[in-house]
Amino acid sequence: MRLLGLLCLSLLPSFSQGLRSIVGEWQPLTVGDRWVYVREMRTGTPEQPRVKTREQEITNTNILLRGNCIFFPGQNYYDVSESQITADSLPDVCFPLRQGMTWGDPKKGRDLWTVAGLGKKHPDDPASVTPDSWRLEAHLASGDDNYVWFRKGVGVVAARTWHNGTYTDETLRLVRFEPGPRR
């Protein structure tokens, strides 16, 4: 799940205070912010699924910013570092979110993300999705349907990858968000 690599905060030098303010309204940027998720992987068959569940804690210590977009290093199909971000680099998310907004380049083998709307798409989507959670969607040629829900001021509240063709359903749901100390 690409949108979750919050490991060490690192801001690009060209990132203006105005853009940081816009991004900060959407994605918490304070060092010490902490998200606790439950990750569930279902494989096998829908009638007899094998289920693996684990808790995952993520702290806000590495988000790369470029313009109004953010990159979560190590969570993409390529491992991007600050020095590797180019005009061709695919950001994880750009702000402010608005319905119909897209980014990515499917012609280069990368997924095309679309802001599809608000709230759940399917009744069994993660419980942490609220009616005010923005739903991002990407449909890959590999048969994966990817969904990420983003809540303004909290960040990623849920994610889901459903593989069509075989039974794989991976979900991530936010259990709690703990803001870091404000200075």
Care to describe what's here?
The protein is mainly β and about 180 residues long. The protein has one domain. The protein is about 5% helix and about 40% strand. The protein is globular, with a radius of gyration of 16 Å.
A few lines on this structure:
With 183 residues, this protein is mainly β. 5% of the residues lie in helices and 40% in strands. It has one domain.
H-E string: HEEEEEEEEEEE
> What gyration radius follows from the Cα positions, in whole Å?
16 Å
Number of DSSP E strands: 11
Structural class: mainly beta
Distance between the termini: 31 Å
Biggest sheet statistics? 8 strands, antiparallel
Residue share in helix: under 10%
The low-confidence parts are: 1-15
Overall pLDDT: 79
Apparent shape: globular
Count of DSSP helices?
1
Number of domains: 1
Strand line-up in the sheet with most strands: 2-1-11-10-9-8-7-6
Proportion of β residues? 35-45%
List keywords for this structure.
disordered N terminus; 11 strands; 183 residues; globular
SSE inventory with pairings:
Layout: H1 17-26, E1 34-44, E2 49-59, E3 64-66, E4 69-71, E5 93-94, E6 102-104, E7 112-118, E8 134-139, E9 144-151, E10 155-163, E11 168-178
Antiparallel strand pairs: 1-2, 1-11, 3-4, 4-5, 6-7, 7-8, 8-9, 9-10, 10-11
